Amino acid sequence: MTSNSTAPLQTQTLVKRYGGLLATDNVSLRLTRGELHAIIGPNGAGKTTLIGQLGGELQPDSGDVFLQGECVTTLPAAERALRGLARSYQISSAFPEFTVLECVALAKQAHAGHSFDAWRALLKRTHLVDPAEHAIAQAGLSHRISQRVSDLAHGERRQLELAMVLVSQPKVLLLDEPMAGMSHQESMKVVDLLAGLKGQYTLLLVEHDMHAVFALADTISVLVNGAIIASGKPQDIRQNPEVRTAYLGDEELPE
Length: 255
Known about the structure:
- By secondary structure, this protein is α/β, with parallel strands linked by helices.
- It folds into two domains: 1-84 and 170-255, 3-Layer(aba) Sandwich (Rossmann fold); 90-169, no CATH class.
- The protein is built from nine helices and ten strands.
- The strands form two sheets. The protein has a six-stranded mixed β-sheet with strand order 6-7-8-3-9-10, sandwiched between helices. Strands 2-1-4-5 form a four-stranded antiparallel β-sheet, with helices on one face.
- Strand 9 and strand 10 form a beta hairpin.
- The longest helix has 14 residues, at 184-197.
- It is globular, with a radius of gyration of 18 Å.
């Protein structure tokens, strides 16, 4: 099956049920190439379930996911990654004795479908090191390139996570709460980094930090009780009475 659209990422009426709970309720999204599209919603709205279906960790009960017009609904996460759909993950405990450069070079090697054998020889392979250094620079970590993961601060580990995703040059990048657990200063640094990636990549952001969302997003979709209740430009979402009602008592939308 293919979609009539060549949108980088599109969903059509995704439904996911857990018993009597409708976690995603006929969710249809369409991302525009090069935009940053944010998904927001109160706690329990279904954001994690939706991201799981987009990334391939969860199968919808009905509906479809399309990548570049190709239906990938039944494909596992690894196959979607090879087709250009990348998802960020927390890696705080991964490879603590590896350096930043080694981790990103490994990620590049893994994306190419190679094993981790003889990983210490990776740094002699320019076809791995050159793109790794570029991704590290994009993530703002060049000054820490030789540091071990165990020596990085929390915010720097999230930057490393971003570099490990960027090194595959994804067509679509899913960012699941990249600022979770960060200080205000660390969050502002990530906002600047993501602002610099806009236009180069198509980004889908799920984030609780509303100030970051409204500073970054080209489009915002609001998920409540598994359904998209509004989708549009930040200024339209901010003024939408249904959206403001959904957040009343939870968190105020930034002015």
